[in-house]
Design brief:
By secondary structure, the protein is an alpha/beta fold. It is about 25% helix and about 20% strand.
């Protein structure tokens, strides 16, 4: 691991970041865990991983807070938006997961559905967080298809918000075939910018396609 290139991983709760860290280490990337709000620049890093967490502040996309929307963590929102724009400006590889997808979409001028009804299809929970609960149809000729080698994925899910309007210069590369909820976004203008709504870090040991997401991210980081 001494020669592995470094990826910045932002966290708010240290206990929650372990699966992301372990998935990166498994693909020979050196994760550097940084608490939200720290003084840090991407100049020392080779990639950025945006993780799950609390809801993005709806004020960032011009809306008032829905009763079901969590209390915003504006410090983290602003911190991650700034890092994301740094990464995009430098064309660093970016992998964004769950909240990370929503944050990326908002940072690029998009908006969110603040509360999905009904929830069951996208927020099922079990003791085993790797258990798939729905399918994702992967769009052809996309980074997601190239990374996973699949046209359909079986994914876990635990979110109550989703993409509404898609941000600038982003394309939809995966969606739930049952309800059309956006499940993956990417930027065709960058060498590796991929955002997924599910949690592949929990599936890397049970689904080779989910592991390949991290492996593809690692290949971009190391290139």
């Amino acid at each position: 691991m001494a020669s592995a290139r470094k990826v910045l991983v932002v966290y708010r709760e240290l206990d929650d970041v372990a699966p992301y860290r372990d998935a990166l280490i498994a693909t020979e990337i050196a994760p550097q865990l940084v608490e939200a709000g720290s003084s840090v620049s991407l100049s020392e890093y080779h990639g950025l991983l945006l993780t799950g967490g609390t809801d993005v502040d709806p004020a960032l996309y011009g809306e008032t807070r829905h009763p079901e929307t969590e209390e915003p963590d504006r410090e983290r929102d602003d911190f991650e938006c700034a890092l994301l724009h740094q990464a995009l400006d430098r064309d660093l590889p970016v992998l964004a997961i769950c909240r990370g997808l929503q944050l990326m979409n908002v940072a690029m001028g998009g908006s969110l559905v603040q509360h999905l009804e009904p929830l069951e299809h996208h927020r099922r929970r079990s003791a085993d967080r790797s258990v798939p609960v729905h399918k994702v149809k992967v769009e052809p000729a996309t980074l997601l298809e190239s990374a996973t080698g699949r046209t359909e994925l079986s994914v876990n899910s635990r979110h109550h918000q989703a993409v509404n309007t898609v941000g600038r210069n982003l394309r939809i590369s995966g969606a739930d075939p049952e309800d059309g909820i956006v499940e993956a976004l990417e930027s065709p203008d960058h060498r590796f910018v991929l955002a997924v709504q599910w949690h592949p870090e929990n599936q890397v040991t049970s689904d080779a396609a989910q592991l390949r997401i991290f492996q593809s991210f690692g290949a971009a980081v190391n290139s």
